[in-house]
Structure formats: C-alpha cells, structure tokens
Design brief:
Blueprint lengths: L1 H10 L19 E3 H5 L4 E3 H6 L2 E7 L14 E7 L2 E6 L4 E5 L4 E4 L13 E6 L5 E6 L3 E6 L4 E5 L7 E6 L3 E7 L7 E7 L4 E6 L21 E3 L5 E5 L4 E6 L4 E9 L12 H4 L5 E7 L3 E8 L3 E8 L5 E5 L13 E3 L2 E7 L5 E8 L1
Parallel strand pairs: 1-19, 2-23
Antiparallel strand pairs: 3-26, 4-5, 5-6, 6-7, 8-9, 9-10, 10-11, 12-13, 13-14, 14-15, 16-17, 17-18, 18-19, 20-21, 21-22, 22-23, 24-25, 25-26
C-alpha cells in the first residue's frame, strides 16, 4: 500500500470541507482539526497500550525450509483468511502463506490466458470467505480458491478502472478510482452475482486547465471492516469517514477531519504551489478504543495520532515495532486487528499485528 499511495499522492489533489451532521436525526459526529492534532504533546507508547489490554505480535515471513530469506519487493495489500495469509506485493505477485508466516506458493501468474492477470491493484476475500479475489485493472475480478485454484473471472463494466473491494457476505462494495478523477461513481454496491444494486456518485468533479496536471485523490484501500462488523469508508478527498449501509443504501458520517490549508475543490493547477503546506489523512483505521489517523503534515512528514473514542483525547504515537526503532503504522485492518509490514535490520520480512484482548 505504501508504494501505491506515495505514487497517488504526487498525482492528486482535492480537499472539500463537508458538514459532519447526520442526514436523519442530525446527530453531530466528531470533527478533528489539523492544528489541534499537530499541537498535541502527549505521547502514547506500546507500554501504555499494553496497560490498556493490547498486545503486538510479530509474524516472521519465511520460506518453508527457512534456509533462505523470503524475498518480498514490498507489500501493497494483504488479507487474512481461514488458516492462511495473502500478500499482494509491489511487483504484482500474490503470495500465499500459512497463518504462521510460511510461504506456500503464488496465486495465479501474469499473462493474458484464463486465470492469469495483467496488473492487480487490490485483493479481497470472497463473500463466503472461501476464496480470494484479485482486482485486475484491465481484466476485472479474478477469483481463486484459498488453495490457489482458479475459479473464474468477472469482467468489469468499465475496463481500466482502479477498484478496491470488500465483501460482507451479502454484498461486495467497490471503491472506484480512476486516474482522471472525473468518474461517475465513487462507491458502488453489488450483490454476490455481480449485479450493481446501488451507486454513490462522485461528489467532486474537476475543471481541467492546461496547468492542471494532477487529479483527485485515489482512495486506495479506503474500505475496511472493524471488529463490530461495520464496513467503514474513508473518503480521502473530503477527509470524512463513513459507515456504509449497503442494504439501505446509505453513507453515515462517523467523523471528519478539517484542515486549514485547503485548496479550491475544482482548481487543480495550484497544487504545486501549496504541496509543501498540505495536510491530509493519509491512512485511517479504528478499533473499539481508538481512531488511528496517519497524517501527512506540512513538509511531507508522516505521523500517527491515536484518538480516544471515549473522550476524544488525542495522542502522538510513540508506538514502535518490538525490538526496533521502526514506527508502527496501521496500513491494513481485519476486524480489530491492525497490521503493518516491515523489514528487520537484517532485512527479514515481518507482519506486525496490534490487537486488544
């Protein structure tokens, strides 16, 4: 995810301050301001989280014989399945590992034939959890069993779209991302047969000028499920976080982030002039206790903040991977498991899992 999102950030722009009141009962949801977060001096460490009932596990990723170091270019996406781990690497390979990190083989191969893929940007579990789906930009969604057996391909109605997905048993939700930014949909819901049941239109369209060389934020891996089973959508272009009600359908605001250095929503030509002053939520996750907001702050610095959901107290993260000086960032989420990927000083790959018990 790091590789794709760094690339996306250089290409894109689109801030919009939105109302954070619910549409029905007008319930006001929390708002967080960048100057309030960046001025926070209180830190929270791993020891502080241990005292609150958390633990951090490290899973060493290795070959079956353990003789040679497992080579991984970088991890773009990952999924935890029943008894196995799937990794999408930066060189567009899909690795299947056991739950304790032993490499078992690859899923599919690159190519134009049946069951082969061209460029995969996202992986997700099938609605029943008994397979893994690959979102290929050109070919559509390719499905395999958990053992890597090819099951079939569903072509996308509009080829060339960058799509990230999540399933909840009854529905498959797709976050639609097109490099040109002016796509008709930004989020859509499908049944398990692939029929679109509802669409959420793009809230922000751009006026292009000869100087406008950047596009809307690609909302990469913007969908995840928390421990309560809720599907959560982080809309990067407004820095608003929604609960998705696929059966209604509806987007219900959970919280939003408001920044001072916002640009006109339809003028993209000014991005180069303000890029060093931009603040944005680069990643978002949450569990029962905290909201985890990874901010890109002015000067292109990255920092994680933990916001207590009970009293909205914000903390500057001092959480490191055990035994290292490497900062922990929750890049992926499965239930209340928050996950990161890192290399040790000896370049041994590890999956890092933070979870409350």
């Amino acid at each position: 995810m790091e590789t794709m999102k760094h690339f996306s950030f250089f290409l894109c722009l689109g801030f919009l301050t939105v109302s954070c009141a619910g549409s029905g009962d007008k319930t006001v949801v929390p708002q967080y301001f960048d100057n309030n977060l960046t001025s926070v001096s209180s830190e929270i460490s791993m020891q502080d989280l241990v005292e609150r009932g958390y633990r951090m596990d490290t899973v060493r990723l290795r070959n079956a014989d353990g003789a040679e170091r497992l080579l991984i270019s970088d991890v773009v996406d990952m999924e935890l399945a029943d008894g196995c781990i799937f990794l999408l690497t930066a060189d567009s390979k899909i690795m299947r590992l056991s739950s304790d990190g032993v490499f078992c083989g690859y899923v599919g191969t690159k190519g134009n034939g049946p069951g082969e893929y061209i460029y995969v940007n996202d992986i997700y579990l099938t609605p029943g959890g008994d397979g893994i789906c690959l979102n290929d930009v050109m070919k559509g969604t390719i499905t395999y069993g958990l053992d890597g057996t090819y099951k079939g391909t569903r072509k996308r109605e509009t080829p060339g779209q960058i799509v990230t997905s999540i399933s909840d048993g009854q529905y498959v939700l797709e976050s639609v991302q097109v490099v040109m930014g002016n796509e008709a949909d930004r989020l859509r819901v499908m049944d398990t047969n692939g029929n679109v049941t509802s669409r959420f239109p793009n809230h922000l369209l751009f006026n292009y000028t000869p100087k406008a060389t950047v596009t809307a934020y690609q909302e990469y891996k913007a969908l995840f499920r928390n421990g309560a089973g809720e599907i959560i959508y982080h809309q990067m272009s407004t820095d608003t976080v929604f609960t998705v009600r696929a059966d209604v359908p509806a987007l219900e605001p959970r919280c939003c982030f408001v920044f001072q250095n916002e640009a006109a929503q339809s003028d993209l030509s000014s991005f180069a002039n303000i890029s060093q002053k931009v603040s944005m939520v680069y990643d978002y996750a949450e569990d029962a206790s905290f909201r985890y907001a990874t901010l890109i702050e002015p000067g292109w610095t990255k920092r994680l903040y933990l916001i207590d959901k009970n009293d909205n107290t914000a903390y500057r993260s001092a959480v490191n991977v055990p035994g290292t000086e490497t900062a922990f960032y929750p890049k992926w989420q499965s239930g209340d498991k928050l996950m990161d990927y890192c290399l040790s000083e000896e370049e041994v790959p590890y999956l890092i899992i933070l979870e409350k018990y």
